[in-house]
Each structure stands twice: as C-alpha cells, then as structure tokens.
Amino acid sequence: MLDEKPFAFVVYGQPATKKNSAVMVARRATILPSKPYREYEKKFRAAMRKMKMHLGELPHYDGPVQLTAKYYLESRAHYPDLSGLLQATQDIISDEYAMVVDRATGKRKRQRRVRWILSDDRIVKSLDGCRIAGIDKERPRVEIYITPLPLDPETETDPQLIKLARAMLEQDLLTEGGSDG
Question: Which listed residue, of 50, 61, 71, 142, carries a Cα 20 to 30 Å from 108's Cα?
C-alpha cells in the first residue's frame, strides 16, 4: 500500500511558480496560473511520462514523506520565491482529481483522473533541505528527493493519514490472524 523506498529524479527546464493571474476565458474573467508556469508544468509532466515509460511505473506515495527540492535557475532575472517553487512542484507531482457526479446518488465526489507520484501534496510533512541551489544557464532544473517517513497513528495529526494508518494496522492484523488459523 505504501511505497517505502526513496525516489530521486531531475526535471530539466527553468523552474516556475504558479503566480496566478486574471485572464479572459470565454468572455469571463477567471484566474489561471501564469503562462510560464503552464509551460513548465507541461514540460515537467512530459518528463514524468517519459520516466514512467522508462521505469514501467512511477513510485506512488500515500503516506507521509519528506520532499527535498534543489532548484538551479537559468539566471537571476525574474528571481522566484522558494515557497512558490515548492508549491508548484508539489502540485505538479500530486495526483490530479476532478469533481464528478455519482450517477447512483447524484452527489458530487472527488475522483482521481491521473496518478502521479504523491497521492496528495498534504502528505508532504517535511521540506528540510529545500533551496534555490544556484544558477546554471546551460541546464536549469529541479532535483527532487522523496523519502518516506514513518506513519504512526498515535503521533499523526492529519485525519486522512490517521485513517490510512489504522486501515493498514487492521489489514496487517487480519493478514497475521488469517495465516495462523
């Protein structure tokens, strides 16, 4: 259920923050991420699809993780803020969801459309070591390191992760009990 191995990868291209901006879409003002971010997201996702083809499958994390990201920028022009870069990175590597109407109940519910690396960016519990590490005109990039953290229902504060931990404990108990009897 939980991926327990660390995973590291590099995505090349100038890192960008979302920096939402108002634009006109279908004659309505709406908020969309900036054009540089949309281009960066497209390149980043293409790199993940390429990794997926090469590896067969991307690792997928449901439990708490530490994410460390080191950003190398093309130049000092339009220098981004680290928190914006981190939020963009977490959003891009997290599963994509859409709201759909359940035909049976008529209620709206959240349904996963695309599985990426993190089930949700809320599982990132540590960002230790993240930084804008330098300027590299030839190869701007982000180096990402994901390390699983222990999941303990006694110390966890996130209700979603507490539920996951309890389900895993029950499953382990059932598996152990089922193999003895």
Answer: 61
CA torsion through residues 112, 11, 147, 133, sign: negative
What angle do helix axes 35-55 and 82-93 make, rounded to 10 degrees?
A: 50
Q: Kindly give the residue spans of alpha helices, DSSP state H, lying in 56-121.
A: 82-93
C-alpha span between 16 and 35 (Å, rounded): 10
Tens-level pLDDT at each residue, the chain (181 residues) = 566 899 999 999 999 998 766 566 777 777 778 888 899 999 999 999 999 999 999 999 999 999 999 999 999 998 999 999 999 999 999 998 777 888 888 888 877 788 899 999 999 999 999 999 999 999 999 999 999 999 888 888 898 898 888 888 888 765 555 444 4
Q: Phi first, then psi: give them for residue 66, nearest 5 degrees.
A: -105, 130
Q: In 79-153, where do the E strands start and end?
A: 96-101, 108-114, 124-126, 131-135, 141-148
Cα–Cα distance measured from residue 179 to residue 149, given in angstroms and rounded to the nearest whole number: 28
